[in-house]
Amino acid sequence: MNIPTTDTAIFAGGCFWCMVQPFDTLPGIISVRSGYTGGHVANPTYQEVCSHTTGHTEAVKIEFDPALISYEKLVAIYWQVTDPTDAGGQFQDRGDSYRPVIFVNSPEQRATAEASKATLQASPIFTKPIVTTIEDAKPFYEAEEYHQDFYKKDPLRYALEHGPRDQFLNEHWKR
């Protein structure tokens, strides 16, 4: 019997540019790829997704080694890099393609994500309801190459895009 040595996690939380870096540098992370998921058009382009007609959400697909980092830890980090109380987008990114979603690929991932969401909702960190949805994983289409590793390719623009997110997160999480 072969036991898988890697697993995947798919998270959406605003612009995928801002979702890569928090996971990319962690031990046990094999890759973080920006892309689109949850829609009804095969192989969408960035322009199509931006038109808000494909049903896709910008997301990251994280390949990780569960022997080195758990899915539970990834979900905990996810909560710290999103605003789970805003269903209309994230920070300056507005619209369905930026909604917060945890896409799960197994009953175990669903149970972990739902338990973590319930714990967060019961905590005093947020006074508004946690609206991040937990949905079954759908086909994931990698974004164009110029979107991959954006924080490394254009650090100045990344910093400008990341500013409002950092301000919010610093207000809610001890960092």
From TrEMBL:
Reactions listed under catalytic activity: [thioredoxin]-disulfide + L-methionine + H2O = L-methionine (S)-S-oxide + [thioredoxin]-dithiol; L-methionyl-[protein] + [thioredoxin]-disulfide + H2O = L-methionyl-(S)-S-oxide-[protein] + [thioredoxin]-dithiol
Superkingdom of this protein's organism: Bacteria
Segments passing through the bilayer: none
Annotated active site: C15
Cited SUPFAM superfamilies: Peptide methionine sulfoxide reductase (SSF55068)
One MF term in the entry's GO annotations: peptide-methionine (S)-S-oxide reductase activity
UniProt-listed Pfam families: PMSR
Residue ranges of domain Peptide methionine sulphoxide reductase MsrA in the record: 8-158
EC number(s) given by UniProt: 1.8.4.11
Enzyme type, top EC level: oxidoreductase
Keywords attached to this entry: Oxidoreductase
Functional summary from the UniProt entry: Has an important function as a repair enzyme for proteins that have been inactivated by oxidation. Catalyzes the reversible oxidation-reduction of methionine sulfoxide in proteins to methionine.
HAMAP family linked to this entry: MsrA
Database matches in NCBIfam families: msrA
Family as reported in the entry's similarity comment: Belongs to the MsrA Met sulfoxide reductase family.
Name listed for the protein in its UniProt record: Peptide methionine sulfoxide reductase MsrA
Species lineage: Bacteria, Bacillati, Bacillota, Bacilli, Lactobacillales
